[in-house]
Write a structure and sequence with these properties.
The chain has helices at about 5-15, 25-35, 45-50, 60-75; strands at about 20, 40, 80. The chain is an alpha/beta fold. The protein has one domain (about 5-80). A three-stranded parallel β-sheet has the order 1-2-3. Strand 1, helix 2 (about 25-35) and strand 2 (about 40) form a beta-alpha-beta unit. The longest helix has 13 residues, at about 60-75. The radius of gyration is 13 Å and the shape is globular.
Length: about 90
């Protein structure tokens, strides 16, 4: 069953824990999704973690879209949430 925003709202009402982690590429997204993670974040922190910048400010919309597409290709169950860059 795919996790949707509605699923998260229901789980919150049921006081069910929601597990969320960050991924920036296809391979890690596959691992997290396979482990049953509920929500995968593609965050602007990828500017520092994956791209080597000293802050998140240089991250472009095109770069985050590139990483979001890769993560989405690796996920079949988890809800993918993407930050917009600054």
């Amino acid at each position: 069953m795919a996790v949707t925003p509605r699923t998260l709202a229901r789980w919150k009402q049921e006081n069910r824990p929601i597990v969320a982690l960050t991924a920036t590429d296809y391979a890690f997204a596959r691992v997290l999704d396979g482990a049953g993670i509920d929500l995968i974040l593609v965050g602007d922190s990828l500017a520092m973690v994956a791209l080597g910048h000293t802050t998140t400010l240089p991250l472009t919309l095109d770069e985050i879209i590139h990483h979001a597409k890769a993560v989405c290709r690796g996920v079949t169950r988890a809800l993918v949430v993407v930050d917009l860059p600054f």
